[in-house]
Target: DoxX family protein
Amino acid sequence: MTRHFGPRALGLAVLLAVIPGQVSAHVRYVTPGEGRERLAELLGAVAGDPLALALLSGGGIGVAVAVLGWLRLRPLRIDLAVLRGTLRSYDDLLPWLARLAIGLPMVGAGFTGYLFSPAATADVLGVPGPAVRLFGIAVGFLLVFGFATRISAAAGLAGYLVGLALSPALLLLAFEYVPGFVAIMLLGGGRPSADHVFSRLADADGTVYRRVDPVRETLAPVGKALAARDGLVPVVVRVGLGVSFVYLGVVQKLLMPGQALGVVTKYDLTAVVPVSPELWVVGAGLTEAALGVALALGLFTRAGCGVAIAMFTTTLFGLPDDPVLAHISLFGLVSMLVITGGGAYSLDRRLADRFGTERHDEWSGGAAPSAD
Model:
């Protein structure tokens, strides 16, 4: 019995490191009721379970050992250099990816009748339903087609801030829209987009559109000024995602564990990994918070994005009634970081200088500017 405990504990630790994404979803979407459990009760239950403590401490030690081993050995250098170079070659698609990541879920939110977060319905916010629908559909379609892209993103950001003022707790569940809108404002429409088509018409000599274009001379300087700062896109996205993950992990799970425990019970997640529900919630909350901190600091950014994508995927397949649209924005923004890496002001860059690794995670920007 004793000799089998080690492999079993190791297996459980690995599962707890990967599968907590199933309970790390936006739990209010699937368990809107308030639970009575509190943080002290949650931590007390985990502290009284020797297996739980062993798994949590073992998981933390395992991650630390893996990081130190990676920095010391740096395996697969050529493979990773080729991979990074290939990913960087997709940087011209970043504006398109950002527009789809934010525009598509906004269209879905508009048709469904909620504002950014599926929990923030018109009735809950106390605003007219048609206004919520029209806002989401209009801004979403403009972003998807890339028409008046920067103006549309600014309008979307203003709408989010209004919703945040009406219901901070609900809108913070969808905080990833903030870095998404800011990134779109920096990148512009890119190509393919309606803005790119009209900008070519406006720049060409002799076109009728060049003579009647009402916004080219007015907005072009603004677009160029924003495009000059597009090298900050990785910083904006990873810090924004980091804040979102930390909020969801700490506030939504550790500080308000009742809803997360409800998810574990509802989907019988203890049958997937045979540990206590409390350990499920603590493991999910800590994993999400740690991932958020790593992304915000730009530490092993692409690896962290891989973990995030695994979490989102297990959520989609593990929680059958969780709204798929609620995760498109997260998938898209994380995919942007897979392309750019940590960018400026990241620990990845410092580690590259310290350990002599190639500085391929630095994204230089350079997306084509557009008037809108």
